[in-house]
Design goal:
The protein is globular and about 45 Å long. Helix 7 crosses helix 8 (about 245-260). By secondary structure, the protein is α/β, with parallel strands linked by helices. About 40% of the residues lie in helices and about 15% in strands. It has one domain: Metal-dependent hydrolases (TIM Barrel). It is built from nine helices and eight strands. Strands 1-2-3-4-5-6-7-8 form an eight-stranded parallel sheet.
């Protein structure tokens, strides 16, 4: 069975600035290139991948697109455009949509001081431009406010497909079933243009070394129950996921869980069909 990893990061600290890594004392604070992942992804059974932005500037997007051209298993890039400037957003899309690997947009909203950053008039105007071009948007949220904002955007721009990266950080570490996160996700599931990316969960468990399927199963089952197998897909979140174990371990846990709780048809949808459709990967 094919498996598309829809959430892979690379960064080049020698040539590009990543503000969020400045002063970072973890294993993340070094250059990560695709070559390092090649054997690991084969061992994990990953057939295709999508690179996802790691900084709010064009250099990051351009570097990802360059890498995508050189790796036959990478089928798409979720890049960045300046959503605070609608005219510049349009200009950037005019350029990037000519590139065969440009498949989506993301902004590091979880690093913005204002949790309601998405609801600024300029950003909403830019998101409408994305929708007009059928370019999906990745919501990298960690707060209830981020889900609430996505709900507003989903209502205002119903033709904009959006996906919650990492399930918008469910309360796994708190072992909460399912609190405010759950209430908001039930509301989110009512919007056909909102999707869930089962990714980045190891680093939210509060048990980096010992997390397993049992830790994440209630939350994965919750989103599958409410969003259905047609609006969920998977991502590894490498190399951030290395904080909670190597690539094969992360994917081993996801595969063990999803093969246990989903039918063969459901697995095909969540492992590759939905991602292929959402990002128009032509896999």
């Amino acid at each position: 069975m094919q498996i598309i990893d829809t959430h892979i990061h690379i960064w080049d600290l020698e040539n590009i600035t990543y503000q969020w890594l400045e002063g970072n004392e973890t294993l993340l604070n070094r250059t990560y290139k695709l070559a390092e992942l090649e054997e690991q992804r084969k061992e994990a059974g990953i057939t295709c991948g999508v690179l996802v932005q790691a900084e709010n500037h064009f250099q990051d997007t351009d570097w990802m697109l360059s890498n995508a051209m050189q790796a036959d298993w990478i089928r798409g890039v979720v890049g960045w455009v300046p959503l605070m400037q609608p005219d510049e957003t349009q200009a950037a899309l005019d350029k990037y949509l000519k590139h065969p690997y440009f498949k989506g947009v993301r902004h590091l909203i979880h690093d913005e001081p204002d949790p309601k950053w998405l609801l600024q008039a300029e950003v909403l105007e830019s998101l409408k431009i994305l929708a007009a071009h059928k370019v999906p948007y990745d919501v990298v949220g960690v707060l209830a406010d981020h889900i609430e904002c996505a709900l507003v955007v989903a209502e205002k721009i119903p033709h904009l497909n959006m996906v919650f990266d990492h399930l918008n950080q469910p309360p796994i570490a708190q072992k909460e079933m399912f609190g405010r996160w759950g209430e908001l996700m039930i509301e989110a599931a009512k919007h056909d243009n909102l999707f869930q990316k089962i990714s980045g969960l190891g680093t939210t468990t509060g048990n980096l070394e010992g997390w397993a399927t049992d830790d994440i199963q209630p939350y994965v089952e919750f989103v599958l129950e409410h969003f259905g197998t047609d609006r969920c897909f998977c991502g590894g979140d490498w190399p951030v996921s290395r904080l909670a174990g190597e690539y094969a371990r992360t994917w081993g846990i996801y595969k063990k869980l999803l093969t246990r709780i989903l039918s063969t048809e459901g697995q095909e949808k969540v492992f590759y069909r939905n991602a292929n459709t959402f990002y128009k990967l032509s896999v």
